[in-house]
């Protein structure tokens, strides 16, 4: 009898290197669409990722470097418009098959389904980005494999706040002790821990320089992690 009843996956950086292959180029394409003289490179973007949420990230950048734009009465409306363009560019890249799942992700998800382990998503990205990625990179009906998809503006306080994980647990009607979170970042780890969840970290290209104090396991990827490994990890965690 497994202790583990549900796996709760983060999306960006965890399921796939979506920041490198999707969001960053999509932001830059949206800036061109909106005649903004901005170009985010990988070094800057790694820093900007400390701000979760694409709209919040654009606002933060404007607060740092574009006070003229910030002062405009229609600033919030412009941020939403830029973010909508960015989301369209991101989904277009996903649908063109430009984003592959990280090692072990598809196998673990399929094994969980076969074992009756429930699946959920807890992410900061927009929900349409999640369903597009799952359908394009896993299976056309993959979004339906996830009982709960907690995404984007579902909660006001984004990671590292625990709100999205707490919402997902409420929807699952499960205690944190029966679940395991899988994340790639310090923000995601803090959100999961604050929600009472054990958390496995698989650092990605933009988060491998972060520290993950409190993580229950840190592995480069999930290629050699089985469902039984995760069930045993949760059991050991609960004994402490
Ligand atoms: C990472 C994020 C998101 C993405 C961009 O989410 O912070 O904001 O960078 O997506 P995750 P949006 O919790 O999956 O790691 O522009 O849709 O916010
Ligand atoms: Mg992430």
User: What form results from the Cα inertia axes?
Assistant: globular
Strand fraction: 5-15%
Instruction: Report how far apart the termini are.
Output: 20 Å
Radius of gyration: 18 Å
Search tags:
binds magnesium ion, globular, Rossmann fold, 2 domains, binds xylulose-1,5-bisphosphate, 240 residues, single chain
How is this structure best described in words?
The structure is a single chain. This protein folds into two domains: 6-17 and 100-239, HAD superfamily/HAD-like (Rossmann fold, 3-Layer(aba) Sandwich), CATH 3.40.50; 19-95, Orthogonal Bundle (DNA polymerase, domain 1). A six-stranded parallel sheet has the order 3-2-1-4-5-6, with helices on both faces. Strand 2, helix 7 and strand 3 (148-150) form a beta-alpha-beta unit. The radius of gyration is 18 Å and the shape is globular. With 240 residues, it is α/β, with parallel strands linked by helices. The longest helix is centred in the middle third of the chain and has 21 residues, at 75-95. Helix 1 (18-33) packs across helix 5, helix 3 (54-65) packs across helix 5 and helix 5 (75-95) runs parallel beside helix 7. The protein has ten helices and six strands; from the N terminus they run E-H-H-H-H-H-H-E-H-E-H-E-H-E-E-H. The model has no long low-confidence stretch (mean pLDDT 97). Bound molecules: xylulose-1,5-bisphosphate and magnesium ion. The site of xylulose-1,5-bisphosphate (XBP) has 18 residues, from helix 1.
């Amino acid at each position: 009898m497994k202790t583990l009843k549900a796996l709760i996956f983060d999306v960006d950086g965890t399921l796939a290197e979506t920041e490198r292959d999707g969001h960053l180029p999509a932001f830059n394409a949206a800036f061109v669409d909106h005649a903004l003289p901005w170009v985010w490179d990988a070094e800057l973007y790694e820093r900007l990722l400390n701000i979760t949420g694409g709209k919040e990230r654009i606002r933060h950048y404007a607060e740092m470097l574009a006070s003229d734009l910030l002062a405009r009465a229609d600033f919030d409306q412009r941020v939403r418009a830029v973010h909508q363009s960015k989301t369209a560019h991101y989904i277009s890249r996903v649908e063109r098959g430009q984003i592959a799942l990280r090692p072990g992700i598809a196998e673990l998800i399929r094994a969980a389904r076969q074992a009756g382990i429930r699946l959920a998503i807890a992410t900061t990205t927009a929900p349409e980005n999640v369903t597009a990625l799952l359908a394009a990179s896993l299976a056309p009906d993959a979004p339906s494999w996830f009982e709960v998809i907690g995404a984007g503006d579902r909660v006001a306080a984004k990671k590292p706040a625990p709100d999205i994980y707490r919402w997902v647990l409420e929807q699952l009607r499960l205690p944190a002790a029966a679940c395991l979170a899988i994340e790639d970042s310090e923000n995601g780890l803090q959100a999961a821990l604050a929600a009472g969840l054990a958390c496995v970290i698989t650092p990605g290209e933009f988060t491998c320089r972060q520290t993950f104090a409190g993580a229950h396991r840190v592995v480069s990827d999930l290629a050699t992690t089985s469902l039984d490994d995760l069930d045993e990890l949760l059991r050991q965690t609960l004994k402490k």
